[in-house]
């Protein structure tokens, strides 16, 4: 309530100030701090009160200065301009700011050059993230009516939204968007021209996620190939005249930001990882590991803010208090405009809002592979730096005027509430500088260059004919080319097909030819003879695009193109040859495995030597999955869990379950492969996902925090855990949605994350077999020549089984030296030698028995659980049915609380 009132008063004061502005005083001169509290800068924040149970000797607190400090003061936009440190010749100018907009997180321009602003008005309005999912966010639309470079007219196109994930202009007065915790993308249209959407239609399903708002789908970017890509989804979608279709892709790895370069290579911006992702090849071909793709030192930011207010704490802090390793990033753009120097055209940019920098990326192509670096690293600098702690660059975009726009959320807290909880390092640092009070602001900047004027021509594409739109395919600004291609395809006007074919054949403008080619593909008017002609073009970039567009023709049935792919694997240009191999792979042409193997032998370039073996691995993985021994229900969980893991968990835990290293060599999160915690009792894993986990794990500290995932349903939790327990070399029991539901109900009253020590104390633990355990059975067979009839073999890999076919009344018994609160047993059974049905009983004296569970046996790992308040020394398993095969068990494990 305190922050809400402060913000309301701030808004009223600023609006009042603006209404009385003289011509000499711009709205960008009004400081939010003036309305917040004019004395704020002179009043130091009081001592921080830490929870009593905080261990100040812990590494997270070692060397931390929590002494009272003057609060951070928000500046006006014009004051903030003085805080930027930029490369020579570059300048920033404000085009829009608070109070007109609040909490801007992303922007997009429509075909008439109007700017849509995604305003996440509920993001971290206090340090506890209260009201985060209130329906008060919005999408506003802005115009510069007098063409002076400042946006002055607006409408609220869509209001009362629950933390919207993106805004995508999709034709005249139409956008696509999706709210948090939703699975559907909707198309919103203003049908009466009043500037407000009044029609809502389902566009696509299956693209959403639930859970933490930072870990949900973002952006939906129409790429050169006429498909749309988003973060977290291992699939792409495509609008067609007959409806929206989907295809599987690799894992985008991104969190906030999807963009493309001039040649349709998509780039995804990882959030927690802090680096670009999936930029080697188009995502449809899958993921590929390229050692050294981030050059040495790429992860080191050069920040001018020295408050040490970073979630990882001092281990990611330089001695001067600045950030030592990228820890969060958001928003991205391959700048494709024409009103900034050529040195940055078609270069990738992204924001690091924790470090308060904008990073430029330089790509070095070596034998078909990409390696990236910060071009200003040697100078220990960045493309844009700021000394203002409130500079939070979260998005950027190539604008219709040929410049780059940068979205600055301009706020105190940039991390979501799961990382600012009571007792956390980050919370203490935020409160030390009173940054939790600075909310409700936001600026949008235009990047310019000395001597280069912005393009003042206003787009009017919605009023233009398809023939007029074709002319924009040669525009030097990539935004114009992209929008024209998109609108021609949405119009589905095939009258321009002859013009497009003529461009492809005769134009001397490489990028115009490429856009015309893909526009033909989007109009379903691409001819195989034209594609084959382009496969022989002298320009390797054209040959590559011909291969990519031909994939559509192959899918539609022209399998003769397989011969072209096989021939072009031998192209003299390594990137073309690699593209041919990738096209052959994704289309699974006949003889693919031999083609890959032969190409590895014939082409010794890095590209083929790195990518070829990985393609073979992917083929083997597909075959392995098709031959899995899982039951149908288990296979369904495994497959769903793999998709979830690849799309989300792998960011921190690594694609192979080995953890993701930070720049300093530490792991963001623990490995899953062989983890005794994950492979132990499933209750540990389920409670961890439902409620989150913090604290040292077995004495080891990790950068990441496992947040609660309880907003996901039981099947989601069961699937991802079942997958983790049965991949990465693991072989564990599957976890059913019913079991997750049971744990969810039992812990429904819990409202805080688990501490590691607390969780391991309450979870059942596997009891290791000891020599003083007594085992007996009604029947025991010899297990191999020279063996004895020893029932204790049930606890080993060797195993135990009955001497003859199973029958009712056969039993297996364990006597413990001390009474334990037994709660579960597990055993592995062979293909045929499993108990058909059985009962489990416990006893304190071996005389009086209590039956606690019954179950049906099956091949593989069998698990039986029960609840009991009493301690027991004896456990008995008893067969209930006749069978044709013996009853066998190996790796028997007992669990006790």
TrEMBL record:
PROSITE patterns in the record: CYTC (PS51007), FA58C_3 (PS50022), PROKAR_LIPOPROTEIN (PS51257)
Segments forming domain F5/8 type C: 800-897
In terms of InterPro entries, this protein maps to: 6-blade_b-propeller_TolB-like, ARM-like, ARM-type_fold, Cyt_c-like_dom, Cyt_c-like_dom_sf, DUF7133, FA58C, Galactose-bd-like_sf
| Keyword Iron on entry | yes
- Top-level taxon in the UniProt lineage: Bacteria
What keywords appear on the UniProt entry? Answer: Heme, Iron, Metal-binding
Q: Which Pfam families match?
A: Cytochrom_C, DUF7133, F5_F8_type_C
Enumerate the spans annotated as Cytochrome c domain. Answer: 636-728
Recorded protein name is Discoidin domain-containing protein
Which species is this record about? Algoriphagus halophytocola
Q: What is the lineage of its organism?
A: Bacteria, Pseudomonadati, Bacteroidota, Cytophagia, Cytophagales
């Amino acid at each position: 309530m305190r922050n809400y009132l402060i913000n309301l008063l701030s808004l009223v004061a600023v609006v009042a100030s603006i209404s009385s502005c003289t011509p000499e005083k711009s709205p960008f001169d009004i400081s939010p701090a003036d309305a917040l509290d004019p004395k704020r800068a002179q009043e130091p924040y009081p001592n921080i009160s830490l929870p009593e149970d905080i261990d100040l000797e812990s590494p997270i607190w070692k060397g931390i200065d929590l002494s009272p400090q003057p609060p951070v003061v928000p500046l006006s936009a014009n004051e903030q301009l003085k805080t930027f440190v930029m490369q020579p010749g570059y300048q920033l100018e404000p085009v829009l700011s608070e109070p007109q907009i609040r909490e801007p997180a992303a922007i997009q321009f429509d075909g008439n050059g109007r700017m849509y602003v995604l305003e996440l008005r509920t993001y971290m309005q206090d340090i506890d993230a209260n009201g985060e999912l209130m329906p008060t966010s919005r999408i506003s639309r802005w115009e510069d009516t007098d063409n002076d470079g400042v946006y002055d007219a607006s409408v609220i196109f869509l209001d009362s939204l629950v933390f919207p994930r993106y805004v995508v202009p999709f034709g005249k007065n139409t956008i696509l968007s999706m709210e948090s915790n939703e699975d559907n993308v909707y198309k919103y249209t203003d049908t009466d021209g009043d500037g407000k959407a009044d029609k809502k239609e389902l566009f696509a399903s299956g693209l959403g996620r639930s859970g933490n708002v930072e870990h949900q789908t973002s952006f939906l970017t129409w790429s050169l190939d006429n498909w749309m890509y988003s973060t977290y989804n291992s699939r792409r979608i495509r609008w067609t005249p007959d409806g929206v279709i989907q295809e599987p892709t690799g894992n985008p790895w991104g969190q906030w930001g999807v963009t493309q370069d001039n040649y349709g290579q998509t780039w995804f911006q990882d959030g927690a990882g802090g680096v670009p992702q999936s930029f080697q090849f188009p995502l449809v071909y899958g993921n590929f590991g390229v050692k050294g793709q981030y050059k040495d030192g790429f992860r080191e930011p050069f920040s001018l803010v020295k408050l040490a207010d970073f979630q990882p704490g001092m281990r990611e802090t330089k001695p001067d208090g600045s950030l030592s390793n990228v820890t969060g990033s958001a928003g991205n753009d391959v700048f494709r405009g024409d009103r900034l120097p050529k040195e940055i055209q078609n270069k990738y940019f992204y924001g690091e809002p924790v470090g308060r920098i904008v990073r430029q990326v330089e790509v070095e192509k070596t034998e078909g592979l990409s390696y990236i670096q910060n071009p200003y690293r040697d100078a220990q600098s960045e493309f844009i730096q700021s000394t203002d702690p409130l500079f939070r660059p979260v998005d950027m975009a190539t604008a219709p005027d040929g410049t780059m726009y940068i979205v600055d959320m301009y706020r105190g807290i940039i991390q979501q509430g799961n990382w600012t909880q009571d007792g956390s390092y980050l919370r203490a640092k935020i409160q030390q500088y009173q940054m939790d009070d600075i909310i409700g602001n936001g600026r949008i900047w235009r990047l310019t260059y000395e001597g280069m004027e912005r393009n003042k021509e206003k787009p009017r594409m919605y009023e233009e004919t398809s023939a007029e739109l074709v002319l924009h395919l040669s525009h030097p600004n990539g935004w114009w080319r992209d929008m024209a291609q998109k609108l021609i395809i949405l119009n589905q006007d095939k009258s321009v097909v002859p013009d497009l074919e003529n461009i492809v054949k005769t134009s001397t403008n490489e990028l115009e030819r490429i856009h015309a080619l893909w526009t033909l593909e989007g109009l379903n008017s691409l001819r195989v003879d034209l594609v084959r002609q382009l496969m022989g073009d002298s320009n390797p970039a054209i040959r590559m695009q011909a291969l990519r567009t031909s994939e559509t023709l192959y899918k539609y049935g022209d399998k003769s193109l397989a011969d072209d792919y096989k021939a072009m694997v031998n192209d003299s240009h390594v990137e073309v040859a690699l593209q041919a191999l990738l096209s052959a792979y994704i289309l699974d042409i006949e003889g693919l495995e031999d083609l890959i193997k032969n190409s590895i032998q014939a082409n010794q370039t890095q590209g083929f030597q790195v990518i070829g073996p990985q393609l073979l691995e992917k083929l083997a993985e597909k075959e392995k999955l098709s031959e899995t021994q899982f039951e149908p229900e288990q296979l369904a969980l495994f497959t769903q869990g793999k998709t979830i893991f690849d799309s989300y968990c792998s960011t921190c835990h690594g694609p192979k379950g080995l953890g993701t290293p930070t720049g300093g060599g530490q792991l963001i999160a623990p490995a899953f492969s062989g983890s005794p915690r994950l492979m132990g009792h499933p209750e540990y894993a389920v409670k961890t996902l439902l409620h989150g986990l913090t604290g040292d794990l077995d004495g080891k500290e990790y950068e990441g925090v496992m947040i609660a995932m309880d907003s996901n349903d039981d099947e989601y939790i069961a699937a991802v855990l079942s997958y983790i327990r049965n991949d990465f070399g693991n072989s564990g029991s599957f976890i059913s949605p019913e079991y997750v539901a049971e744990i969810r109900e039992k812990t429904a009253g819990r409202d805080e994350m688990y501490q590691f020590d607390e969780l391991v104390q309450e979870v059942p633990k596997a009891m290791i077999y000891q020599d003083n355990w007594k085992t007996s059975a009604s029947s025991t067979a010899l297990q191999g020549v020279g063996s004895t009839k020893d029932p204790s073999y049930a606890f080993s890999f060797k195993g135990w089984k009955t001497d003859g076919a199973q029958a009712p009344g056969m039993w297996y018994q364990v006597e413990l030296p001390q009474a334990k609160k037994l709660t579960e047993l597990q055993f592995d059974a062979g293909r045929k030698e499993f108990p058909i049905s059985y009962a489990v009983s416990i006893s304190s004296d071996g005389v009086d028995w209590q039956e606690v569970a019954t179950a049906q046996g099956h091949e593989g790992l069998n698990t039986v659980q029960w609840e009991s308040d009493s301690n027991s020394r004896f456990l008995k398993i008893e067969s209930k049915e006749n069978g044709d095969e013996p009853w066998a068990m190996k790796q028997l494990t007992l669990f006790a609380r």
